[in-house]
Design goal:
The chain is α/β, with parallel strands linked by helices. It is built from 5 helices and 10 strands, in the order βαββββαβαβαβββα. Helix content is 25%, strand content 24%.
């Protein structure tokens, strides 16, 4: 398949929970809409914290979206005339989302904006988000404020029992901690 005349860009908004990633994504989407661009906004089915069909920030800002089961479902829902694709909670998609994003950019000429966690609650990097940041045209690292030290938050710390990396939640299960505060908690 020949390359489109225009190759789209990839912007990655990444960081801990409560850092403003989704807010930055919503702002970018609204700017694209003001510029009369055709925009599609997605989130994974797994993210049902505040709404089934809306991206909602922790402070209540929201935008309507399409819910996708996985990367292939997302790809199948793309309209050919779309100019901007925005995807929230990118870490909950499967690894094939990278191929989907590159196809949208390289063959569809679409600009793609994603928002996602940089680290899991155990302090390990989210590989999918890191890979996207590495190939991004622009990657913006967001930091929340540590609830204990007031410093930049290092990780979204889960203070309830959980199995594995994924436990969807908000401030009912997570707090933002600096590296110092995080290490003090895990060393206890």
């Amino acid at each position: 398949m020949p390359l489109a005349i225009r190759i789209g860009t990839l912007d990655v908004e990444w960081g801990s929970m409560f850092s403003g990633k989704s807010d930055a994504l919503i702002t970018a989407v609204k700017r694209a809409m003001i510029a009369n661009k055709r925009v599609q906004v997605f989130k994974p089915r797994l993210d049902d914290r505040y709404s089934d069909d809306t991206i909602v920030t922790h402070d209540g800002r929201e935008i309507d979206c399409i819910v996708a089961e996985n990367s292939y479902d997302l790809m199948n829902r793309i309209n050919l005339d779309t100019q901007v694709v925005a995807i929230d909670e990118i870490q909950f998609f499967d690894e094939h989302i990278i191929e989907v994003i590159n196809s949208l950019r390289r063959y569809g000429g679409m600009d793609v904006i994603v928002a996602g966690l940089d680290m899991w609650a155990n302090g390990e990097p989210v590989e999918l988000t890191a890979k996207l940041a590495a190939i991004a045209h622009r990657a913006t690292k967001h930091h929340a404020v540590c609830v204990e030290t007031g410093e930049d938050a290092y990780v979204s710390y889960c203070f309830v029992e959980k199995d594995g990396d994924v436990l969807v939640g908000g401030n009912d299960k997570y707090i933002a901690l600096s590296e110092k505060a995080y290490l003090q908690r895990v060393r206890k």
